[in-house]
Amino acid sequence: MTTENQPPLSALAMSLALARGEVTPAALLDEALTRVARANDALGAFVHVDAEGAARAAAEAGARQAAGARRGPLDGVPVAVKDNLWVAGMPAHWGSRMWVDFAPPCDDIPVERLRAAGAVILGKTNTPEFALSGRTDSPLHGPSRNPWDVSLTPGGSSGGSVAAVAAGMVPLALTTDAGGSTRLPASYTGLYGLRPSNGRIARRYGFPPMGIDFQAVGAVARSLEDLEMAYRLLAGPDPRDPFSSRLPAASAARRPRIGWFARLAGELVHPEVEAAVQECAAVLQAAGYDIVPRAAPYDVALVRKVWSALSSAGAARAAEMHPDRWRTEASAAIAATAARGLALTAVDYVRALDGLAEIRTGVADAWGDVDVFLCPSAASPAWPIGDEFPAEIGGAPGHAGAQNAFATWVNAIGHPGLNVPARPHANGLPLGVQLVGRFGGEEDLFELAGSLGSGAAWKPAEFPPW
């Protein structure tokens, strides 16, 4: 067990200690609750803690442990779930006053899998309204803050999940990612964060999507081993999600070929982010991978145009679920987005779908002879919590779309993307790089992330003590 002055255990370390009988699920839960009590008021990570339900789950896991019948590596390990995902018995506020009294009738499939594996679900983590913002500041629950510096945002929309994991409250948390909402917050907080291929983590129940199939359920962890352990549990088809059965079989063992780019024409990138990508390319080359410079395989302006239309329509559809309330209860940003969506015509929407088809065929044509792209996750490190977006990036004025210039194209094509912590910024803040694979290519991403972790000359900064 750890103490206030010691770092928290990883999920893997917890699992091994449980398997050896060195600790009980109840003891792990007690420590998680202690860490939440110590840090949550400052960080705004959790918006609901189910201490009673978690205690029941820990007791059941303890009985299995005593009987030598643990269900697997996550049996008895405390985890968290982002508030826009359905967990039966817990509220799902979606960051919105309009859902303040909502409690879902069932678990979504990833949550079912956590329960079936014996994981102890501690509670729900903060998200902005409709999970539709690059920072996490909900009108219902207020902001989440970055554990590295509480004056900074942890990003969005999975800011509560990354704050909980980076601060050591739990070793793992579920996230979602429709435009970068797992990978960007992970890059700002020094975590590994996976947005899997569409359908890789099956789902069935939940809130309506903001942008058709842009969103996938993902996960964040402090270590690659923990993230991969969670992925092995969560991934796989389910007949309730027909798309989950359409993924290609895992590719034969071979060394993936990598294309890399560190900037986009006309886009802002912090010089240290650009340098981090170049350094990671050099590490992979030194490890024997075939790595070549390539142009970005997408048109960022088209991606933004399509995402703006689809997300505006999605926000309007969600707001109209409460037609008499949303104009007065929604945040100003969501109200404006919903109003834009209501102003779209059917022709506008079909044109957005045409644009999405153009993005997908364009990326397929431009992908070329590589298996994985290496590029930035976010354009800069974390920024002040009171600002909607960074005021400047690398000395140039920032703008609302700058941070996800390297992220949302992955959602548009439905491919997997993995944030990997890189050499920290000179000021000590985390930076991340992104690995983007072919559809169904998560195994390549895990392999390359492992090579980056073992071959880098730098070491990630130590997590701040909480």
Question: Could you please describe the fold and organization of this structure?
Answer:
It is a single chain. With 466 residues, this protein is α/β, with parallel strands linked by helices. The chain has two domains: 231 residues, Amidase signature (AS) domain (Amidase signature (AS) enzymes, Alpha-Beta Complex), CATH 3.90.1300; 198 residues, Amidase signature (AS) enzymes. It contains 14 helices and 15 strands. The strands form three sheets. It has an eleven-stranded mixed beta sheet with strand order 1-3-2-6-8-7-14-15-11-9-10, with helices on both faces. It is globular. The model has no long low-confidence stretch (mean pLDDT 96).
Q: Supply Rg.
A: 21 Å
Largest sheet report: 11 strands, mixed
Percent of residues in helices comes to: 25-40%
**Average residue pLDDT:** 96
CATH topology value of the largest domain: Amidase signature (AS) enzymes
Q: What is the CATH architecture term of the largest domain?
A: Alpha-Beta Complex
Percent of residues in β-strands? 5-15%
Supply the number of structural domains. 2
Identify the overall geometry. Answer: globular
- The count of strands amounts to 15
N- to C-terminal separation? 15 Å
What structural class should be given to the helix and strand makeup? alpha/beta
H/E order of the elements?
Answer: HHEHEHEEEHEHEEHEHEHHHHEEEHEEH
Task: Provide the spatial order of strands within the biggest beta sheet.
Answer: 1-3-2-6-8-7-14-15-11-9-10
CATH superfamily of the largest domain: Amidase signature (AS) domain
Question: Unreliable runs, pLDDT <50, ≥5 residues?
Answer: none
Number of helices: 14
The top-level CATH class of the largest domain is Alpha Beta
